[in-house]
């Protein structure tokens, strides 16, 4: 029997708090799960630094990847027999679902920004490079690794396959919304996924939703909206992300200035030099990063040491609402006052915007901007969701941006009460 | 503060107005591929390279009053028109960076349709492949657009010109 068709003698199941069970029968999928590259995802948190805000949010990209795989497994099961579905694509869908986040690095968002990396590039490199994952995919077929990379990169010829894993209503979002809600403990993020899966239909090159399922989709869009504001954009999490970025910037700055670290930062050197190899990338997970932060707490450099103490011990920056247009003058003044007070504004004063975060809202879009969610009406016509749903239309038109000013409040408190600088800083910050 | 936003405002100060979100997406992508210092991250979507970061950043600039946005109804869809406001011009005065050589490229892009910019940006997305592979890939992922060989040749010329221009 060809490797691609090989089944395990007995179905394997993973207990899962969101989907109850994740079922694996394909030998290829089982082998992929066992690779070092996939196991590494156990050491990358799904929600980065959100655990500082929601203490339960310690779940990993490993959990999430299995969850996306399980949702896709159910969808393709439902699609079997539909005219627009080719069951030959089944294993490709399952593999791409499982591996879609393979290239995420430690605290991926901040890390990528500081070192100008893109996890999607690494996902492709792991799938196509000299890795255990690649060797397994090669056994399925010479062109199979490329096909999996193309599906994840959204450049595969069959767009229906892509849209299952990456569209405005896809398995990725359906898993992370529910999983993140479960682990953060918030009461948003829940929707009737079983119902959505039942009303999903393959049609030509996209997935559409039967009009009768509109209310379940409304619930999904509402969950997404609430989760963005309540979890993903949470200002405390953003504070920890700001500090994390500052640590990485400071360490890189010191390295480039020939600073002698107490412990040579071997794992970071190629990142500081902006030429990490795939091997370097795979070695750096969150456990390693946290180890360095622990060591750097005791570095001689006071800024690196202080920032690492803040991160490790959750001593975060305070924040206020900030309007960069109306308060630009105050920003300039604060910058000057911080410098005069001996508090380096490059590390202890920051404006953070919602666009600095990687999450997106549902967008009906304009013509050919981004594929929206389509409802299939009884007569077979397709209608964009927000044209049919007042709830979705209302959310789609809402303001979805904000800016916050983060600062080291304890340093300001530490200034002498007689100091004019302190008084003026507090005047600005406290309005 | 808002350095990346300021670069976008600077772009608008050079091109005055952009009609269509898709057009805006493709213009910034092409400029990025010509080594202009835009940091917005792009992924491939149904209609070519697309940046959610850019979408959100433009929304922020509009909410802050730095860009004007008007929505026009077209047959079956909406189209958005963006321009720089006086507030935006004032904000830009706080920043000291130049987008040298950008005017000629913007002028060239303004002379082309969104469909063509979509083709160009898609071809640039597959940069690194051989010419034949890029064309094959573009015709596969854009099969519905029915691009002709003439359009592909014109796009290669266009890419060569804009790359040389910076």
Automatic annotation (TrEMBL), chain A:
GO terms for biological process: dGTP catabolic process. It comes from the Bacteria. This is HD domain-containing protein. Coiled coil: none annotated. It comes from Salirhabdus euzebyi. Gene3D superfamilies: Hypothetical protein af1432. GO terms for molecular function: dGTPase activity. Residues 61-177 form the HD domain. Pfam families: HD (PF01966), HD_assoc_2 (PF19276).
Automatic annotation (TrEMBL), chain B:
It comes from the Bacteria. This is YwgA family protein. It comes from Salirhabdus euzebyi.
């Amino acid at each position: 029997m060809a490797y691609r068709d090989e089944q395990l003698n007995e179905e394997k199941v993973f207990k899962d708090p969101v989907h109850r069970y994740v079922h694996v029968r394909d030998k290829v999928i089982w082998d992929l799960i066992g690779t070092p590259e996939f196991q590494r995802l156990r050491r990358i948190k799904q929600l980065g630094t959100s655990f500082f805000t929601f203490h339960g949010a310690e779940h990993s990209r490993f959990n999430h990847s299995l969850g996306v795989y399980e949702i896709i497994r159910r969808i393709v099961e439902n699609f079997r027999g539909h005219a627009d579905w080719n069951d030959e694509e089944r294993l490709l869908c399952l593999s791409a679902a499982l591996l879609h986040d393979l290239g995420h690095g430690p605290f991926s968002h901040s890390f990528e920004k500081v070192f100008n990396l893109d996890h999607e590039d690494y996902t492709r490199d792991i799938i196509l490079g000299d890795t255990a994952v690649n060797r397994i995919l090669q056994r399925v077929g010479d062109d199979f690794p490329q096909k999996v990379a193309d599906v994840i990169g959204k450049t595969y010829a069959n767009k229906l396959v892509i849209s299952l894993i990456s569209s405005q209503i896809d398995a990725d979002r359906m898993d992370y919304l529910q999983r993140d809600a479960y682990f953060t403990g918030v009461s948003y993020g829940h929707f009737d996924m079983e119902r959505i899966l039942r009303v999903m239909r393959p049609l030509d090159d996209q997935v559409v939703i039967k009009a009768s399922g509109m209310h379940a989709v409304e619930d999904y869009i509402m969950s997404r909206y609430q989760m963005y504001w309540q979890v993903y954009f949470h200002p405390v999490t953003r504070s920890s992300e700001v500090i994390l970025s500052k640590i990485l910037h400071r360490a890189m700055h010191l390295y480039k200035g020939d600073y002698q670290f107490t412990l040579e930062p071997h794992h970071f050197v190629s990142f500081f030099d902006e030429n990490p190899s795939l091997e370097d990338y795979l070695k750096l997970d969150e456990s390693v990063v946290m180890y360095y932060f622990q060591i750097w707490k005791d570095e001689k450099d006071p800024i690196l040491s202080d920032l690492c103490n803040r991160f490790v011990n959750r001593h975060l920056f305070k924040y206020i609402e900030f309007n960069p247009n109306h308060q630009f003058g105050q920003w300039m003044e604060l910058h000057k006052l911080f410098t005069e007070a001996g508090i380096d504004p490059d590390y202890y004063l920051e404006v953070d915007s919602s666009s600095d975060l990687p999450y997106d809202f549902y967008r009906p879009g304009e013509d050919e901007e981004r594929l929206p969610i389509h409802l299939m009406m009884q007569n077979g016509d397709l209608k964009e969701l927000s044209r049919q749903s007042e709830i979705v239309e209302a959310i789609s038109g809402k303001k979805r941006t904000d800016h916050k000013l983060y600062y080291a409040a304890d340093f300001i408190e530490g200034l002498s009460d007689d100091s004019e600088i302190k008084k003026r800083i507090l005047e600005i910050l406290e309005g | 503060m808002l350095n990346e936003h300021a670069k976008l405002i600077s772009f608008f100060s050079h091109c005055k107005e952009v009609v269509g979100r898709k057009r805006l997406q493709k213009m910034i992508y092409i400029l990025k591929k010509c080594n202009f210092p835009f940091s917005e991250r792009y992924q491939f979507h149904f209609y070519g390279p697309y940046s959610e970061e850019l979408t959100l950043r433009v929304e922020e600039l509009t909410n802050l009053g730095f860009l004007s946005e008007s929505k026009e109804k077209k047959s079956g869809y909406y189209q958005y028109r963006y321009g720089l406001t006086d507030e935006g011009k004032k904000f830009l005065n706080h920043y000291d960076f130049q987008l040298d050589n950008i005017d000629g490229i913007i002028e060239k892009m303004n002379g082309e349709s969104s469909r063509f910019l979509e083709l160009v940006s898609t071809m640039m997305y597959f940069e690194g492949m051989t010419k034949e592979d890029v064309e094959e890939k573009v015709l596969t992922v854009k099969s519905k657009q029915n691009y002709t060989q003439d359009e592909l040749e014109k796009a290669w010329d266009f890419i060569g010109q804009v790359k040389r221009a910076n």
